[in-house]
Amino acid sequence: MNIYGKKVVLRAMELSDCALIQDMFNDPEMENLVVGWAFPVSAYAQEQWIRAHYGDREDFRFVIETPEDGAVGIATLTGIDWKNRRASHGIKLAGRERRAKGIGTDAVMAVMRYAFDELGLHRLDGSWFEENTASSRLYTRLGWREEGICREYIYKRGRYRDLILTGILAEDYYKLLERNRYWDSP
Asked: Which DSSP letter does residue 182 get?
């Protein structure tokens, strides 16, 4: 089942997406903004990573597509805790030229609708580095709240960096929809 936003479609990852994902993981600018290890990823390793995640029931990874550009990034729901109805979420958009066009907004809105309406989750968690102002603006505008800071939590590029913890509850999402009527307009 594909997940539809107003501008994007979220679909399952395919082996044909290896090059896009590998390019994103190997982009030093992008990797500097996200949590996790930064090391070169080969085409073989990328293919094995995608194969290892087929059919995973706790980690959903979607390719973000637009009608104009095709595959432009990835969105995730990972670490799904079915008992407590929560998961972690993140997105990555390939290339600066795709940013500030509403693709990220629509992808996050589509993920939240899927998580809360289809999966029945209660909460989504996220995180970003303080200097990742694009993520901060995007998620804050969409109802996410900063819930804490893990001081000097991630070591990257020769220094420890603070990690801002964020989250949104299903009720926050539904209040956002009452205010912005996001899904009501074409």
From this structure: G
> For the chain, what's the residue count?
186
pTM of the model: 0.89
- Name the β-bridge partners of 9: 4, 65
Q: Where are the domains of the chain?
A: 3-184
For the stretch 8-40, pLDDT in tens is 999 998 888 878 887 777 776 777 677 766 677
Fold of 3-184: Aminopeptidase (3.40.630)
The helix or strand, by DSSP H or E, that contains position 150, with its residue range, turns out to be strand 145-156
In Å, what is the CA distance from 30 to each residue of 20, 25, 46, 68? 13, 8, 17, 22
Instruction: Please give the pLDDT value at position 64.
Output: 95
**Residues of the chain under the 70 pLDDT cut:** 28, 32, 36-38, 96-100, 186
Residue type, 25: F
The H or E element containing residue 72 is strand 70-81
Measure the CA–CA gap between 14 and 62, rounded to whole angstroms.
9
Q: How far apart are CA 117 and CA 59, in angstroms?
A: 18
Tokens of 134: 């694009």
